[in-house]
Amino acid sequence: MKKTTSKPTFFSKLYCHIFGHDYHVSKKVTRHVKEYKCCHCKKELTTNSNGKLTELTSTFKEINDVLEFMYHKKISRIRHKMYSTPAA
Ligand SMILES: [Zn+2]
Prior knowledge:
Elements: H1 10-19, E1 23-28, E2 34-38, E3 44-47, E4 53-55, H2 58-84
Antiparallel strand pairs: 1-2, 2-3, 3-4
The site of zinc ion has 6 residues, from loops.
């Protein structure tokens, strides 16, 4: 079995309970959607479709993966279009 090295400890959870979470952007999905991770307890959040922060569940991870894929595909298509269209 694989062992996780960054398992949150009781103290890191207690720290967040007292001082609040310390979220940092862990992943940029699109321009508007990001994933955040608390550097103390490793709790993860993401931007949902309403633009609000919500807990990053496995469902949201899957949605974000699709969003990220579509976002990058769209960008590359726009870039491709820009380069392939001759300037008028
Ligand atoms: Zn935390």
